[in-house]
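note to self — DONT lose this again. spent like an hour looking for the file last time. sequence + predicted structure for the chain T wanted, 298 res
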Amino acid sequence: MYKFIYIEDCLPLKEQLIEIFQAHNLMGTILLATEGLNGTVAGPASGIEALFQFLHQDSRFVDLWPKLSYVPSPPFKRMKVKVRREIVSMGLEGIDPAEKTGTHIDPKNWNELIRDPEVLVIDTRNQYEYEIGTFEGAKSPETENFRQFPQFVDEQLNPKEHPKVAMFCTGGIRCEKASAYLLEQGFEEVYQLEGGILNYLQAHQPENSLWNGECFVFDERVAVDEQLQPGSHTMCFGCRHPLSEQDYQSEKYEPGISCPHCFDQLTESQRASFAERRLQMELAAQRSQKHLGTSEET
């Protein structure tokens, strides 16, 4: 869920949200900033309902509606409510999606739009997310973080050469700022997928989908498939990079220690630390106890 709306003082709202989390067994993260609210939360249905009853009593969030999915076990282990400068970090002043953003396209109309040869389709997510899955014909900015997106636009896009641009991201929030930035730079027709990839996958059966691969998500599932079920990827403890079946076959892959993406960058001290952690996890499993680090890589 997210909403770009001016919040003069985030601290009272933060304290109220913490109380809701604690009272209803909710886990996950909510970010607050003067520009709005952004969060991913998990818990029992009654707890989610209580959260939105609280939010909808506030005139600023009366039209805030979440994108919902269901999982058999909690995807988060902690509760966090943080106050930040931005609810999605682009690092630029003056980009206000509450004032101006791209045209939202319903998932049911998305296929027709991106099949148009005059439309440049851009995946606004990071490169590692793009590699796990993306839409047919989509261009990657090849970024490591969203703060690099404006540089990609400045160096590789041109309003005269790319008059029609369609963008997408996981849940929609990055596109709000990305499309606002493109409009500021003079791009005439800027479109964005309403509700992001997750909303699209809910709206389309695989046989009608133009999505290829899995979709990275920021929780313990790592990625979901086209049915929004946990996918085949896990997470490397060393570098936090998603791992595929191909990565597991690499000689540089050691569970709990390294993967092909970080093997050459790890120091001996880091290797030793990760190896000790793996040993402690194995010992805890033998005692039928849960090690604190178990959830980091499954």
